[in-house]
Amino acid sequence: MTSTEALIRNLTADLTPVRRRDVWREAGALLALGAVELALILAVQGMRPGMGRMILSPDVAWKIGSLALLAGVACTAAVRSFAPPARPRRGVELTLGLAGLAIIGGALVTPAAESGRSLLDRLSPAQGMICATSIVVLALPIMTLLAVLMRRAAPVHPKRSALATGLAASLCGALIFTACCPMNDPLYIIVWYSAGVAAVTAAARWLLPRRFRL
Amino acid sequence: MRFHSLSKLTRPSRDPARRAQDAPAGPALSDEWSALMKAAQDGHGGAYRRLLNEMSEWLHRYFQRRLPIGDVDDAVQETLLAIHRRRHTFDPQYPFGPWLAAIAKRKWVDQLRSIGRRPTEELPEHLSVGDHEAAVTSASVLAGLLEQLRPAQAQAILLVKVQGYSIEDTARETGMSSSAVKMNIHRGLARLTSFVEKCDDVD
User: Fold this and answer.
1) Global ipTM
2) Residue B121: beta bridge partners?
3) pTM metric for this prediction
4) A12–B98: do the CB atoms touch at under 8 Å?
5) Do B73 and A3 touch (CB under 8 A)?
6) Which of A20, A46, A169, B116 suits B130 as a labelling partner, its CA being 20 to 30 A distant?
7) Which of A184, A180, A183, A196 is nearest to A45 (CA)?
8) Residue B160 Cα, gap to closest chain A Cα (Å)
């Protein structure tokens, strides 16, 4: 008996049924975790004042709408990338392409009053650091859940899947944070939200492929 | 004489007939394997044994074209283990072929990486060799692969990893410093791996 035959005999000897991977269950878990985080942050910080009224203004609608779209696309790309035949590169490229369009959209919806302010005033670094840090903190539980899902699945491009995971987690964190973020200026959003997203994505890309073995 | 197994690196064929041979299975067989895997997921040992036996034959053929003969069994077993560990990720709604091919390709790349990391081996001067076919195929494929590299990288890999020269001899021969030779080998192998990874050979 060859070693391959012996291996096959061992693998089939005590075969037990397995529960098939279900992407809808994984998507549901992500949604549930996002909802819990949203409830927690609203309980701790409260919703930003005047949200109901401001959501109709172009800049706030742009902020929430584009982040919701990006988070949805990135989460889909990440979860799909965990299956062997998937090509994570396409999902990552689509997310980055949409992010580019969102940035252009941000330039178009910038109110004229904002353009007159100084750059430092518009960027408001102290508040920006709080926003970027909050996005990182909110992204961590989602990244952990996605890392668990990735580990249980079979991504054959772990580095690209990790990139998709980082983008998805950070964009979800950013979307949740919009509920209490008091800033509307698209320049501010682009700079500081991008900083938070980039930090989480870089960490995911560096950390997740380690110790992963198909 | 020193010999490195990189010389048996094989590249996926561009010949449609040979590519067809490399495909995991025709639609009928893929459907059959899909049904067998579905049964295996439900705990049917007999179906799983039959599936693994049939897949191991295909995997042998797949890796024989791509790896040194001594690494084929390892690659087949690694792939079977990966399939066993990740069998819950197969969705019977989708074809089985691409699922298997993706895992096999990943394992091929892993095996190439481990070959690149492996130290070179000293072999006796007079070593009897049986079949030259794989070596001849590998040599022509290797030449094609080396064309993807910069001349300095290709030359360093060819002299050290294929022809068995030492780093110092290669440095003298090429006029490069020893560290430049090492760097060219390292970067060249990394580039080869990356090139192989990007090849869509069995979609």
Assistant:
1) 0.82
2) B3
3) 0.72
4) no
5) yes
6) B116
7) A180
8) 30
